[in-house]
């Protein structure tokens, strides 16, 4: 198994028989209230490097875009400059969040033709954009809520990101190694009763397949519950868990998200790291806050037995609040940040895989109890 296969759980796949071949993630595009400061935060706290920029200085009058990278992961952070920018209305409604899960594909036209034939709403038709570095071909289709997938073929392009952007390097000089290497998965929250519809969308329109399924009691707690199914592209580099609220004694955390995001959207982004302990230590030192894991989680004999041997003593995980889950293929270590912005919506997960291709099913209950303690503190439970 190569390092990359291990890191994000890749499998062998033959693109030639795939109706909608996907190479991998292109970028996660955020709309935020203050792109200048969000870009600073992602550099200073998460160790990302600034690679490119567009804004008034480059001829884009109404908004600024900062392109940041850590390993294979690319984020584009956008914020309005002009009060009349369409980004203002988007941010007004949703707060900080992901507007575009852009995917790299080898053939934009082939994917769009398949998607259109299978009922997709095409937002942007296939088109070329060129500058002195070459040509990018792209198109976009709608997914849940106001979220979209831009499909990008950048095989003929050698610039810093896209035509219209200029190279810009980071002013932050980190001494430490990269804190994460890739995007592992991106989770969407959708309304009650809509999860299967979006699973069908990814299967029928984008050629994804079901990967794992968690329903009902798997992830119910005393107070709230959700249902979750996972779809993935052919090689499993792109993995989309989809959650919907389930009926519990109190309001589901998914309902809280849907209320504060004003509809379906991206709930969390899992960032793959080869050393979650070092990453968590570095992030804590920069003031990043994580959900707390109760000591009872580590002391529960049943859980201890199921976890078995992991690469570090359990005490090292407990000290940092890192969760462990094991399945038939191996184990994974994971931890979740608190919401990144003001609304209780989007957050990050950090994940270190050791063979497991799962998503931490065994941790859902422990995690949700931790989330609910915070939800209760906000008066939303
Ligand atoms: Fe996750």
TrEMBL record:
GO MF annotation terms: dioxygenase activity
UniProt family annotation: Belongs to the 4HPPD family.
Pfam family membership, one: Glyoxalase_4
Cross-referenced CDD domains: HPPD_C_like (cd07250), HPPD_N_like (cd08342)
InterPro entries per the UniProt record, alphabetical: 4OHPhenylPyrv_dOase, 4OHPhenylPyrv_dOase_C, 4OHPhenylPyrv_dOase_N, Glyas_Bleomycin-R_OHBP_Dase, Glyas_Fos-R_dOase_dom, VOC_core
PANTHER family per record: 4-HYDROXYPHENYLPYRUVATE DIOXYGENASE (PTHR11959)
Name of protein: 4-hydroxyphenylpyruvate dioxygenase
Cofactors (names): Fe cation
NCBIfam families recorded: 4HPPD
Keyword Oxidoreductase among record annotations: yes
Residue ranges of every copy of the VOC domain listed in the record: 24-154, 182-338
Keywords, ordered alphabetically: Dioxygenase, Iron, Metal-binding, Oxidoreductase, Repeat
